[in-house]
Amino acid sequence: MKLQEPLIPKPVPEFPGMWKAMGPAVIWLALAQGSGELIWWPYMIAKYGLAFLFLLVPACLLQYPLNYQIGAYTLLTGESIFQGFIRLNRFFSLYLWVLMTLSFLWFGAFAGAGGTSLAALTHFPHGWSGKGQTLFWAYLSMGIFFAGLMLSKVVYRFIERTMWFVAAVTLAGLMVACSHADVVKAAGDFFRGLLVPQWPLPRPWEWKDATKLLTAVTFAGLGGFWTLFYSYWLREKGAGMAAYMGHVTGPITGKKELIPQSGFTFAGTEEDWRRLKKWKKYLAADSAAGIAGNIATTLMTCLLAYALLYPQGILPDRYEIAVVQARFFEVSWGVAGRLIFLFVAACFLSDTWLTTLDAVSRIHTDFFQNFFPGFKRFSFLQGYYFFVFLLTAVTGITILFNEPGPLILLSAVIGFVGTVSFSVGLIFLNYRRLPELVPAGAVPGRFFFWGLVLATACYAALAVLYFGTLMFQPRI
Question: pTM for the complete prediction?
Answer without folding.
Answer: 0.92
